[in-house]
Amino acid sequence: PADERSLPLLYAAVLVSNVAVTFLAMATESLMVYNTAPDMQGRSGGWFQAGNLGGYGLGGGAALWLAQTLPEPWMAGAVLAIACMLCGAALWFVPEPSRIARTGHYARTLLAVLKDLWQVARARAGFLALLICFLPIGSGAASNLWAAVADDWHASANTVALATGVFNGIVSALGCVFGGYCSDRMDRKTSYALYGLLMAICTIAMALAPRTEAMFVVFTLTYAFIQGLTYAGFTALVLEAIGLGAAATKFNLYASLSNMPIAYMTLIDGWAHTRWGAAGLLNVEAAIGVAGIVVFVGIATMLPRKAVPAA
Question: Which range among 51-60, 258-267, 278-287 shows the weakest confidence by mean pLDDT?
C-alpha cells in the first residue's frame, strides 16, 4: 500500500534490490571478462557501460511513465519485473566460464586473490589503470550539478528533466558504444586521455557560449556523449589490465576506486560555482582535468615498458 505505514517494507525492498543489483553486476562483469577476446575488450566495455548509463536514464524514465500512466500501482511493478526476467534470456547465448578451483580453505583462497591483485597492480597496465582511478580525467562530475546551475542558462524545469534524464541516457549510451569501438582501434591509454581532453574542451566551450536554454541542452547532451566515451575507455583499460582469475573482484575494486575523482570533483565544482559562478565551475573542472591528463601521460612515459605480466 502507498502509505506511510508501508515505509519499512519500502526500505526492505530497496535494500534487497540493491544487494541483488550488486551481485548481478559482479556476475555480468565476470561473464564479460571471460567471454571477451582481447581485441574486443573496448566494444565489450562500451556496451557494458551503455547498459549502465543508458539503463539508468531510460529505465528511470520508463518506470516514472508507467507509474503515472497505468491505472493500478501494481501494474508498473509487474511490467518492470517481467522486463527484468526477460533480460535473463540472453544467458542462453553466453558460455559459462570454467570455475576456478579453490586452493583449500577460504583463507587460502582469499590470499590467492590478494596475490592476484598484487600481480595486476605491479604490471605496467595494471598500475596505469589504478592510477586513472584517482586522477580527475573525464570524471563527469559537472553532470551532478546541471540542475543546480540550469537557471544561469534560463532552462525550465521540463527542459532540465529531459536534458538530464531520458535524452541524457540515450546520448550517453551512444557515447559508450562509440567510445568502446574507438578504444579497440587505438592504444587504450591514448584513447582515454583523448576522451578526457574532449570533455575539458566541452566544458570550456560551454563556459564561453551564450547563456540560453538551447545552449544548455546542446552542451549538456554533448557532455553526456563524451561522458559515455570516458566510461567506455575506462572499462576497456581495466579489462585489458586485470586478466582472468578473480575477474569480478578485480574489476569491482577498480570500479569502486574510480568513484573517488567523481566525489572530490563534485565538491570542487560546487566550491568553484559558489566562488566564481557557472563559468568558474566549468573552467575549474577543465583545468583540473587537463592537469590530470598531463600527470597521466607523464607517468606513462616514464614507466618502463617491461613489467611483471598480469596474472
Answer: 51-60
Taking every pair of Cα atoms in the chain, the longest distance, rounded to a whole number of angstroms, is 65
Dump strand ranges (E) for 29-164.
none
Exposed/middle/buried for residue 121 (C-beta within 10 Å: 0-12, 13-18, 19+): middle
3-state secondary structure 248-302: HHHHHHHHHHCHHHHHHHHHHHHHHHHHHHHHHHHHHHHHHHHHHHHHHHHHHHH
Q: How far apart are the first and last CA of the chain?
A: 52
Residue 108: all three cell numbers together: 587460502
Whether pLDDT at 199 is above 60: yes
289 pLDDT higher than 90: yes
State the cell numbers at 49: 557501460
Q: CB neighbours (10 Å) of residue 2?
A: 6
Cα 134 vs. chain centroid, distance in angstroms?
Answer: 14
| Among candidate residues 92, 51, 17, the one with its CA nearest the CA of residue 235 | 51
Name 120's Cβ contacts closer than 8 Å, sequence gap at least 6: 126, 241, 242, 243, 250, 310, 311
User: How many CB atoms are closer than 10 A to CB 97?
Assistant: 13
- What whole-number distance in Å separates Cα of residue 167 and Cα of residue 164? 7
Nearest residue to 191 via CA among 296, 302, 49? 296
| pLDDT tens-digit readout, 101-157 | 665 677 777 787 788 778 877 788 888 888 888 999 988 999 989 988 999 999 888
